[in-house]
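Form P-L/3: holo structure prediction, ligand cytidine-5'-monophosphate.
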Amino acid sequence: MIRVAIDGPAGVGKSSTAKALARHFRYAYLDTGAMYRASAWWCLHQGIDLDAPSIDEQQVTEAVAEFFTGDHFSIGLDPDAPKVMADGEDISEAIRSSEVSSHVSKVSGIIPVRHLLIAAQRATILGENAADSFSEGRGIVAEGRDITTVVAPDAEVRVLMTAREEVRQARRTGQSAAVSAVGGEDVAARDRADSKVTSFLTAADGVTTVDNSDMDFQQTLDVLVGLVDDAI
Ligand code: C5P
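OUTPUT (holo model):
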């Protein structure tokens, strides 16, 4: 069974490419960023102060542990319906809010939180997530920041997607590169915070770098399809 691990910074187009790749091969799809976003959403929802000068890491870890082990959280593995649910509520949209985006690195930077999520992600990639039968007998595409290095370093296909910073900022804001500096989320700040705990700016040994700065969506997808075809 083929496992495809894709890492890269914010705004590089990982999610849309990874989803399309999963559709192409009829594989399952795991958005690990959505799991960190859902954890941050849950903490905010529980009234935990993520703006405090020194965050209560134990409180956050306990809240996230309850979220994952207490059956509050689920994520869909079908690339056509990668729904994120909390206590029966569809939070797929809510976890993309600027409030969650600006707090997520504080949660993902807590090492015991990472251990909880990494364990859950490994179980899902190995098909041990009984709650979702979609992945049964299928390959899987998992994307994030530490999939090629920590979560699934033995994946059959390992890719680091990169693009120049101004290109990524423009993709995130949906504007042209010329005006992107004016508005939109500061992806560079999030990457700086994230790169303190995960290494996604340079490729680890055996990981193929795909710089898509000058590629359109289809060209990027074609490159990834080629890499998976070579591994099958
Ligand atoms: O990929 P996305 O931008 O949705 O990820 C949201 C956040 O989740 C990242 O900024 C990072 O803080 C965290 N993350 C992580 N490790 C991963 C995936 C995401 O720390 N494997």
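COMMENT: The chain has two domains: 1-27+140-232, 32-138.
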